[in-house]
Structure formats: structure tokens, C-alpha cells
Amino acid sequence: MDNLAVIQVLLPLLSAPLCLLFNKARLAWMIAVVVSWAALFVSLSLLVMVNDNGPIIYEQGGWPAPIGIVYHVDILTAFVLLIVTSIAAVVMPYAGKSVEKEIPVSKQPAFFSALLLCMAGLLGIVSTGDAFNVFVFLEISSLATYALLSQGKDRRSLTSTFQYLIMGTIGGTFILIGIGLIYMKTGTLNMADLADRLPAVFDSRTVHASFAFLTVGICLKLALFPLHLWLPNAYTYAPSVVTIFVAATSTKVAVYMLLRFSFTVFGVDLVFAKLPLTEVLLPLAIVGILVGSLAAIKQSNIKRMLAYSSVAQIGYMILGISFVSASGLTGGILHLFNHAIIKAALFMALGAVAYQIGSTHIDALKGLAKKMPWTFAGFAIGGLSIIGVPLTAGFVSKWYLVLAAIEKEWWIVVAVLLVGSLLAVIYIWRVVEVAYFQTADDESDIQVKEAPLQLLIPLWILVIANIYFGINTSLTVESASSAATMLLGANS
Fold this sequence. Notes:
Helix content: over 70%
Largest sheet: 2 strands, antiparallel
Number of strands: 2
Order of helices and strands: HHEEHHHHHHHHHHHHHHHHHH
Distance between the termini: 32 Å
Low-confidence stretches: none
Structural class: mainly alpha
């Protein structure tokens, strides 16, 4: 049990080469499924251990920090690990059927290898207590993501991947420069050690520049408006499985990085008292919510619509951070989990549609709900959750954000939260209207059936999770609230 912190990362990292070594599509998929479920068990165990006994510190090779590299698992870390592994555990079984139509058999072992490497990189970013290792794992996940995004059938997947590669490289470079500058000033890379040493030198312009580079680089990775331009095309033209996994996990881990560096490494008092981070994040989050939602309404490709919706939802998470309050942080951290299960469910429904008809264009969905009732029922419930209807997961996190805005008497922010939900009604209704209330132009040529069970079961696991976590919030709210309390107490 003492080794679970490192086993979490080693499982997918060491399993990825096995997919290539055996070079059998079906075997590679089975390895990915087993590893993802094993990782989920490990993350659940870590969450229980942290809740019972406090943070876990794993010293690599027995070398204590700051000499050695450590893995540090606290309540926030364990919660984000649970997000990544739970999504992976549902996506991998789904991938077996979905990948059949989108990836040639000869490329599938390499595809699952890259998917496991992406997962390993994301888990490593979250687990490590070393600032430079954050960059190393970020590059592992990014390189794997570039390879995965480029596998889309549409040739535009190559140009969108190249655009993401350029933007991702810029973001990674900014993060590396930021880490280099704080190392130059403090002589350490261990996050706990940095938290102790930075207050003494925080008035230095080098440290200010370091924080600026880190913030911009991380915001580019998490696709905060206006640094989001890589995201819509990347999600739209990627294979369905890649879109589901990346949309539900990658940006969440980037938000975690922003939380970790802002609150734990640099510290609440230093960052939010001496630097205008709230004044920067708050307006960008508000504009992101409105612009992302308005852009989603105008899209004719539903994958692209949900991609712009993600830009808006990222705005909600950053809004929670900018409050710098217990309610705000709880809402923001809660939305990491809730948005992951919401958006994964919505993209899974679209993946099932693409599997059956080969298109996610809105005109191709006319009358399809009659032929694929379970798929579109899942989409509709996921849509209700992203709107924030009561008894769904999306309502809970938005409720905490509204409470945080009311506590601070930021009435404009309350209005933005309500308008954002109303705009979500419009773009979700566009899909529901076409699928349920319109008829296909020519139904004689295409005999569409319901999606296979291998696609429907993972979809409905997430749909049920959306309802369950909208009713029973003990796990999510308690974890998010504990994480918020911990972050606000760091260095204060």
C-alpha cells in the first residue's frame, strides 16, 4: 500500500510498450482495459488512505526531499487522480468497438500504446511533488496526445494537430521557463521546498516573471479564453475515443496545475494579495463563458459545438479559482469532476452516432432519436446536466459558484452564470429538436440501428453517474470542500 502513489503512474507507463510488443489489436485493447481498471482501483485506494491518514509522501529510491524526487498525494491530488482514472476505466471498454471503424487494425496497438502513455503523463503531472517532473510528464502526455489527435480520418485532423503542436509547444516552453526562473532564484525544484523558500524572495522581479510564464503557459494548456483557439479543431477532427478522453481529462489536469502552483507553491497570500491574478482570471473566465457558449450555438458540427462548450465550461472552473473563497474553490474543483463525466457522456453519445452513420453534422441527425433512442436519451440527460438542471451533477457545481458570487455580492457574475446556463439550453435544444422532432429527408437509403451495447453501456454508466452525483454529493462535495480548505490554508 505504501507504493500505490508510484504504482498509479507505473501501471500505464510500463503497459504502453506491451501493446507494441505483442502487436495484436485485440490484446492491446485488453491490456488498456485491465490497466485502466487497475489504475481506478489504485486511485480509489489512495483517496480512502488520504481521507483516513492525511497526505501520502512517496520518496523515490528512499531519498527524502529536497534531495530526491517525491510523489505527494493530498486530497486534491487524489480527487483529480480519481477523475482521470474513472474516465479512463469507462473509455477503454468503449474504445474496443469505436476504434474498429476509425483506426486501421495495423495501427491499433500503437494507438492504445499512445493512449496509455497519455494517461501515464496526466497521472504523473498530478502525482509528482517535483516542479521539473511536472514538465516531463506534461511532455509525455502532450506528445502522446499529438499522435492520437492526428489519427482522425478527416485530413483536417493533421492541420488541427499541427496547430495544437505549435500552441502546446509554446505553452510547454513557457512552463519550462517559469520553472527555470524559480529554480534560479531558490535552488530547489521540490514543491514543498519552493513553498518555504519563495516568500523570502517573492518581491524579486525574477519570481514575478516566473509566475507570469507559468500562468500563461498553463492557461494555454487548459484553453482559457483567448488562448483556446487550438481546442475546437483538435476535438472536432480527432477519433471519437481521443476526443472523449482528452476533453474529459487533459484540461482538468491543466486546471489542477494552475491550482497547485498558485495556491500551494507560490501561496495564496503572495499570489492574490501582491499580484493581480483575480483581476486577470475573473474577466477572462466571464468572457470565456459567454463567448464559448455563443460560439457553440452557431456550430453545425456537433463535436465542434461541444468543443466550444468546453471553452465555456473551463471558464466556470477558472471563475471558481478567481473567487479565492471556500465556496468558489469548492465549486471550481467540483466542476472538474462534474464536467468530466458530463462531457465524456455527450461525446460518447456522438461517438455512437458517428459509429452508426459516419457523421456528427446536425443535418445528419434528423429523426435519428427514433432509431437510436438509448443513445439520444443519454445525450439529452447529459445535456440537462451541462445546463445545470437540478438533480444532475452540473447543477451542484454551478450552485456552489452562484453561492460564492452571492457571498461576494458580485451580481454581474451571478447574471453571467445564469446567462451561461440559458445559452447552454439553446445549443443543447438545437440537437434535441433535430433528433426528436424533425424527419430525415430520405429515410429509404439508410437503415440505422441502435448503437452496439459495447458503446451504450459505458455511455449509460456516465449518464447514471450524472444523475447519481447530482443527488448524492457526499463523495464529490466533501472531497472538493476538503481540497478547497487545504488550498486556502496553504502558506497562509
